[in-house]
Amino acid sequence: MLLSSTNTLENKEIISYHGLVTGESLVGSNVYKDLFSGVRDVVGGRTSAYEKELQKAREIALDSMQDKAKDLDANAIIGLKISYNNLGGTMGNTILVTAYGTAISYKE
Amino acid sequence: MILTEDRKKRIKDISIATFCIVLGTIFGTISLFLCYLLNLDIFGFNIGLILSPLIAGYVETFFARKIYKKTTGAVSAFVLFLVTVFYGFIYINTGLGFNIITVGSAAIILQAALPTFVNYFLLVIILGILSYIFGIFKELINKISTLLKKLYFKLIGKKYVEEKGIMDYNEKKAEIDINNLEISFFSTTNPNREIEKINGVYEGKILIKSQKQLFHNHSLEKKDILLTNIRKAREQVLINLNDSAKKDGCNAILDLSIDFDTIGGLTEDNIHIVARGTGVKLK
User: Which of A76, B107, B131, B270 has an alpha carbon 20 to 30 Å from B195's alpha carbon atom?
Assistant: First the structure.
């Protein structure tokens, strides 16, 4: 499945538009992980616990979106948008990752 | 075990940082020892208690900048700070009692040593607990108020109709497939068909009420409920957008964007979802 954030696919002919496809996932964080990230920052390490969780959440959102596109017989998603939202205010500890785009079929 | 380049670099960085911290701590401890040995007192107060953390921090930062090319956060100053507090103020001072002044002093020492942690504790944890307690009180008062209203309506012989919060979610629309509506949605600006008319910007909105309990509970079941609510609400936002654009004769929405926002004060427990795009009529 080809993913693109652009409006069209350069040098490729779009045969049909299948509509909007979406995907989403949630990441829950916690205070201990926050503190640990802070400590690692001091000693110069990378805050990989968060990085890994966010990467996983992004993959889940993209996979779910691609599954929907496959169900519509699409072979690409264009106009792709991915956003990260923090839910829950000051005490917020849930991150929502959303992905959406237009499912299309193009001539390979 | 084969280590990746990134991991090797991290191990090397941590080793250098640890070396600088140990070096700072050794220098600080020696300076404290010397100050006690030479009796460097001012009105009975040994200046080593002040100087040794500063020396430890300076030495650590000096070597960290030379070898590590950045600072390590003067961890040794903090270590020496703890040593001087425990040795100089508590261990030697046998007459020290447990009262409001010593507790207050200990709190100030902690604040100076761990400002981020103490501020986080005061501003986030304490405020969070208070807002949670007040939240319980609010619910209790609401329940009492509803009970009194019901009683009042019963006394005057009228039927009490319960007020509902802002919730524009429509269960009847839950089964509609967004890709089988009269309007086509495009996240792109180019529909590959000729545009007959541009009708302007259209919006579809929805507010999902009070999701606080779901935000702070990370069990799989609660996470699934929250995700399902968001998914259902987002589909309905598109249906609402479809309804408003269809009235003006549009048959497509271009450059569609979907935004999620949390609103509702400090605890922000309502999710506001907005879908926005340009309504057009395609040939």
Answer: A76
